[in-house]
Amino acid sequence: MESLKIPKGVRRVLFRTLNTDRRLMFKSEYDSSYVGFTTEGARWLVRNTDIKLVGVDFLSVACDDHLVSAHLEFFESREIILVEGLKLDDVPTGIYNVHCLPLRLLGAEGSPIRCILIK
C-alpha cells in the first residue's frame, strides 16, 4: 500500500485490480485467488491515509486468507466505508469525483448502491 503513495487529503479510492482483467465478477465458479487486502494492507491504509471510502472490483475487499481480519481492520476505524463488487472494466486510471448512492434499508448492515464517477 505504501508504494502507491496515496497523497494526504485523498478521501476516496477505487482499486481496479487484476480481478477486472481476469473477469472474476463474471465467472460462475468461485476463485479464491482474487486480489484483496491483507490485514497488514488494511491496517496501513487506515493508519496512514485520510481515506474514508475504499472501493474494489470483487465481492470482497479482503483477500481470501484475510477475510475476517482485514475487514475488522477497516471496521475498527468506524470511518471507512467499503464498496465491493464494482464494475471498473471501462474506467481508465485517473482522478474522478465518486458519488455512491445506497438504498436506504432499515436494519440492514449493507445495501446495494449505484456509484457514479465524474471525470
UniProtKB/TrEMBL annotation:
Subcellular location: Secreted, Extracellular space, Extracellular matrix
InterPro entries per UniProt: KFase/CYL, KFase_sf
An example molecular function term from Gene Ontology annotations: arylformamidase activity
GO biological process terms on file: L-tryptophan catabolic process to kynurenine
UniProt-listed Gene3D superfamilies: Putative cyclase (3.50.30.50)
Major place of residence: secreted
Keywords: Extracellular matrix, Secreted
Family named by the database record: Belongs to the Cyclase 1 superfamily.
Alphabetized PANTHER family for the sequence: CYCLASE-LIKE PROTEIN 2, KYNURENINE FORMAMIDASE-LIKE ISOFORM X1
Protein name (database record): Cyclase family protein
Organism: Gossypium schwendimanii
Organism lineage: Eukaryota, Viridiplantae, Streptophyta, Embryophyta, Tracheophyta
